[in-house]
C-alpha cells in the first residue's frame, strides 16, 4: 500500500476547479484501491447522498472536463462515458467515512496532509504576491508623478515654428535653458 502512495504524488492529483481544490473520483479510486474503480465510489456516495452536498462533491461540466484534460494532458474520460465527479477536501473526508477498503484510513490521512500542504503553499505565495502588489503600487505612483511632470513640461514649452522662424526657435530654446 505504501508503495502505491509513494509512487503517486497526491499533491499532483489536486486540481483547482470552480475556485476549489478538488480530487477526481478516478484518482481517489486508485488511492483507496477500490476493486471496481469509480463504480465503488459512486455506489457508496449514492447510498449516502445526504452526506455529500455540492460543496463536498460535484460533477464536472463538459467544458470543465475539456479544460482539465488540456491541463493534465490526458484523455482518460471520453465524452461518451460518464463525466467524472470531483471531491473537495470535506468530500474526501466524508468519503473516507463511508468507504470500506482496508487502506481507507491511512490514505485519508495522507490526502488530508496533501490538502494542508497545498493550502500552506498557496498562502505562502499569497504573502509574496502582497509584496509584489505593494511594489507595483509604489511604481505606479512614481510613474504617475513622472507623467505629471512631463505633461507640465509639454504645456509650458509646446510651440510650433514654421519655415523661416529660425530666430524665434533659437530664442525659445535659450529661454527654456535659462529656466533650468
* Structure classification: alpha+beta
Give the terminus-to-terminus CA distance: 79 Å
Report the sheet with the most strands, covering strand number, pairing sense and barrel closure: 4 strands, antiparallel
* β-sheet strand percentage: 5-15%
Q: Which sequence of strands runs across the widest sheet?
A: 1-2-4-3
Using the CA coordinates, give the radius of gyration: 31 Å
Got a strand count? 4
Total of helices: 7
What report would you give on this structure?
The protein has 180 residues and is of the alpha+beta class. It has 7 helices and 4 strands, in the order αββααβαβααα. Strands 1-2-4-3 form a 4-stranded antiparallel sheet. A hairpin with a 2-residue loop joins β1 (14-17) and β2 (20-24). α2 (25-31) crosses α3 and α5 packs antiparallel against α6 (104-156). The chain starts with a helix and ends with a helix. Residues 1-7 have low confidence and may be disordered.
Q: Key terms for this structure?
A:
4-stranded antiparallel sheet, 62% helix, single chain, alpha+beta, disordered N terminus, 180 residues, rod-shaped
Topology:
Blueprint (H helix, E strand, L loop, with lengths): L1 H6 L6 E4 L2 E5 H7 L6 H10 L9 E3 L2 H11 L12 E4 H10 L5 H53 L9 H14 L1
Antiparallel strand pairs: 1-2, 2-4, 3-4
Helix pairs in contact: 2-3, 5-6
Amino acid at each position: 500500500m505504501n508503495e502505491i502512495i509513494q509512487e503517486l504524488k497526491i499533491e499532483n492529483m489536486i486540481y483547482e476547479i470552480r475556485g476549489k481544490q478538488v480530487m477526481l473520483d478516478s484518482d481517489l479510486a486508485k488511492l483507496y484501491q477500490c476493486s471496481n474503480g469509480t463504480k465503488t465510489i459512486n455506489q457508496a456516495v449514492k447510498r449516502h447522498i445526504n452526506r455529500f452536498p455540492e460543496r463536498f462533491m460535484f460533477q464536472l461540466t463538459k467544458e470543465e472536463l475539456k479544460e482539465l484534460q488540456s491541463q493534465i494532458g490526458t484523455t482518460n474520460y471520453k465524452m461518451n462515458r460518464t463525466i467524472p465527479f470531483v471531491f473537495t477536501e470535506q468530500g474526501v473526508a466524508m468519503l473516507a467515512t463511508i468507504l470500506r477498503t482496508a487502506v481507507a484510513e491511512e490514505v485519508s490521512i495522507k490526502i488530508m496532509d496533501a490538502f494542508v500542504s497545498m493550502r500552506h503553499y498557496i498562502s505562502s505565495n499569497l504573502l509574496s504576491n502582497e509584496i509584489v502588489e505593494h511594489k507595483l503600487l509604489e511604481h505606479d505612483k512614481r510613474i504617475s508623478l513622472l507623467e505629471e511632470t512631463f505633461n507640465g513640461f509639454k504645456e509650458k514649452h509646446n510651440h510650433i515654428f514654421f519655415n523661416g522662424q529660425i530666430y524665434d526657435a533659437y530664442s525659445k530654446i535659450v529661454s527654456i535653458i535659462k529656466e533650468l
